[in-house]
Amino acid sequence: MAQILKKAGTSPAEAIPPQPSYRRPWWSATAAAVLTLVLGGSVLGVQLESTGITTTVRLMGMETWGWLLAAALAVFLHQLIRPQVEDWRARTRKPSRFTLPKIFSGQKRQLWIMLAIGALLIFPFMSNRSAVDLATLTLIYIMLGLGLNVVVGLAGLLDLGYVGFYAVGAYTYALLNSYLGFSFWEALPLAGLMTALFGYLLGFPVLRLRGDYLAIVTLGFGEIIRILLNNWTELTGGPNGIARIPKPTFFDLEFTRKAQEGNVPFHEYFGIAYDPSYKIIYLYLLALILVLITLFVIYRLLRMPIGRAWEALREDDIACRSLGMNPTGIKLSAFTIGASFAGFAGAFFAARQGFISPESFTFIESAIILAIVVLGGMGSQLGVILAAIAMTLLPELAREFNEYRMLLFGLMMVLMMVWRPQGLVPLKRPHMELDRG
Amino acid sequence: MADALRNADNSDMSSTTQARLAGEAPLLNVRDLAMQFGGLKAVDGVALKVHPGEVVSVIGPNGAGKTTVFNCISGFYQPTGGEVYFEDKPMHRLPGFKIAQAGMVRTFQNVRLFKEMTVVENLLVAQHMHAERNLLRGLFKTPGYRRSEKALMQQAGDWLERVGLLEFANREAGNLAYGQQRRLEIARCMVARPKLLMLDEPAAGLNPNETRDLDDLIVSLTRDEGISVLLIEHDMSLVMGISDHIYVVNQGQPLADGTPDEIRHNDAVIKAYLGEE
Q: For residue A85, what are the CA distances in angstroms to A32, A82, B76, B117?
C-alpha cells in the first residue's frame, strides 16, 4: 500500500520547480519601463485643465518628462540586471529545502498585479463622477469584507454584528471631530484602535460560545451598538445623527471651494480651477490605498504564525490546545484585528458621507458584508474582492428592480449555496516550494 | 530499525530502566488521580510514574478509564482529585495548552489533524509556541522573523522526511491515507518539541505492517530524541514489545503495574481481560 502511494506521488526531485527563465530579460525590462512611463506620465506628466465645462489635457514641461524618462531608464536597467543579481544571491545564500512562496510568484502574476493597480489608479481620471463614487463605495465594502473574512473565513467565528464595529469606527471619527476638532488623519488611527478595543471587549464574553450561539450574541452586539447610538441623544445626536463631518484633507489642503479660516483649498494652492470632482477622485484614491494596505496586511497575516493559528482554530480547537496554543488569545486576536479594519472603513465612510446616523448601521449591512464573504469564498481574498464588486454593482445596474432587490439577493444566495457552496473563488492553500540546494 | 525492534523485544526481561531502579525523580508523577462525572467514578486512585527516556504504557479493557486518565493528565479534564507533577511542577488545575507548553504533548484516539490545511501547514502550526509571533516583526519580515520561519520550515521538512511524508507535503491532510494521518499526527507532536509524548491508541486501525512501522518510530523517538512516551494501546504485541513499564487499569482503578513480563503473568490482569471463570 505504502509503495503504491509512493509511486503515485511525485518524488521530491521531480517536484523542484524550474528556475525562473532568463530567456527574455529584454522584453520584460522594456515592458516595465513602458509601464513606468505610462503610469508616471498619466499621473505626473499631464495636467487636467478645465476651462468652463470642458476639460483639456495639457502636457507638463520638459523637466518633468526628463525626470520621468530617467525613472523609466532606471526601471529598465534594474529589470535587466535583476535575474543576474537574484541568481548571485541565490548562490551565495544557504540553501533551505522549503521556502514560503513569495508575494509575487512568477513575473506574469507580478505584471498582472501591477497592471491592475495601474488601471485602478488611472480609472478615476477616465471616468465620470458617479462611477468613481460607486467605485469608492465598492472599495469600502471590499475593506469590510476583508476584515470580516478574518473573523468568519479564517478563524471560523460566525459574526453577525460586524456592522457594530463599522459604526464604532464611523462614530469615533465623527465624535472626535465634532467635540474635540480632530482631523480625519488624526482620528483614523484612533478609530482603528477604538474598534479594536470594542472587538476585544466583545471577544471576552463570547469566547466560550461557538456556531449558532456565537452568531446570536454577535447579532445582539450589533443591535446594542445601534440602539445605544440611537438613544444616547446628548452625545450622538440620536436619530438625527452627526452632520458636517469634514472630508479628508490632502496634506492639510481642503477640497472645498472656500477653505476654512487660515487654510488654503487644494485648487488655489496648485493654481488650478475649482472642480468638485477632485474631491471625489481624492476620496477614491484614498479608499484604494486603504484597501491595498488592508490586502497587504491580511496577506501577510495569513502567512504568519497568527494566521495559521486562526485557521487551525477553525479546523480543530482541541488539537490546537494539545499543541500549546491558547485558543482564548487566538480568538481574541481574530476579533480584535478583524474589527479594526471595520474601524478604518467606518472612519472613512463617515468622512466620505459627511453625515452619519444609526440608520446607516442596521443589521442588513452586516448581512451584506457576510454575504460578500460567503459569496466570495470563505478565507479567499480575491473572492471577497469579486463578491464585493458584484454586491455593490448589481443593485446599481438593476435599479429598475429596486423593490425586488432583496428577492434577487436571496435567490442569488440560494443558487450559490446549491451550485457553488465553496464560493466564487475558494481559498487556495499556499503551495510550499522545494528549493534547489 | 529491525535491530532496534529486536533489542526492544530482548529487553523485556530487564526492561525496568535504570532510572526507575535508582529511584530518580520521575519526569511525570501522577498520584491518586480521581475523576468523577456526577455519580460515576470514571477514574479512582490511579497513580503512575514516567521516568526520562522510558516508554510507559497504560492498558486495560474497554471502558476502563484509560483515555479519561489521559484527558486528566493532559488538562482536557480538570481531575476531581489527585495530583499531577511534571518535572516536579504541579500540572493539575492548569489548562491544556499550558500543560502542552510545559512539554507534554498528546495525540488523540480519533486522529485530530487540521484536515483542510496542507501537511506542511499542520507541522508549521504545531510549532506555534516556538515561532516568532510578534505581529510587527512578521508584517515587516524582519531578519529575525525570516530566520524563525525558515527554522520552522526546516524542522517540518526534517520530520516529514522522517515519517516518510515528504512527497505529500502540499497535500491536504484530510486526503492522506489513514496510516499516513497517524504518522503525521505523531510528527505534528514531535515538531512541538515535547519532553513527554502521550499517544492515545496510536495503532488503532493500522494494519500489521503499519503497526510495525509505528513500533520502530516510537523506539527511535525515545532513542534518538531522548523523549519519554506514555502510551495507551490495545495492541498487546506492540505494548509488550516496546514498554519499559506497564500500568493496568480496570474499571477506573489501578489493577497492577510492572514490567511487560510481570504483567503477562499477572493473574489479576488475565482475569480482568478474560473474565472471572
A: 17, 5, 53, 35
Residue B108 lies in a domain: no
ipTM for the complex? 0.86
For B213, which residue in chain A has the nearest alpha carbon? A2
C-alpha cell at A392: 455593490
Dihedral angle of Cα A216, A221, A226, A228, to the nearest 10 degrees: 130
Q: Please report the domains of chain A, with CATH numbers, ordered by start residue.
A: 20-85+93-125 (no CATH), 127-434 (1.10.3470)
Residues B213 and B90 in one domain: yes
3-state DSSP assignment of residue B107: coil
pLDDT digits (tens, 9 = 90+) for B100-156: 999 999 999 889 999 999 999 999 999 999 888 888 888 888 899 999 988 898 899
Same-domain check for residues B271 and B137: no
Q: What residues of chain B lie within 8 A of the CB of A430, using their CB?
A: 118, 121
B77, B200: one domain: yes
Mind listing the pLDDT tens digit for each residue in A165-179? 999 999 999 999 999
Q: Are residues B43 and B176 in the same domain?
A: no
Q: Tell if the CB–CB gap between A315 and B116 is shorter than 8 Å.
A: yes
Question: Is the CB of residue A192 less than 8 Å from the CB of residue A371?
Answer: no
Q: Say if strands B245-250 and B228-232 run parallel, antiparallel, or are unpaired.
A: unpaired
From B193, B217, B246, the end of a domain falls on B193
| Contact between chains at B120 and A99 (C-beta distance less than 8 A) | no
Instruction: Confirm if A301 and A150 have CB atoms less than 8 A apart.
Output: yes
Residues B183 and B242 in one domain: no
Inter-chain CB proximity B139 and A304 less than 8 Å? yes
B211–A contact, CB cutoff 8 A: no
Report yes or no on B24 lying in a domain.
yes
A52: left (phi over 0), alpha (psi -120 to 50) or beta: left
Provide the CATH number for the domain around residue B7.
3.40.50.300
Coil, strand or helix at A350: helix
Indicate yes or no: CB of B126 within 8 angstroms of CB of A323: yes
Where does residue B141 fall: left (phi above 0), alpha (psi -120 to 50 degrees), or beta otherwise?
left
Containing domain of residue B142, as a range? 113-193
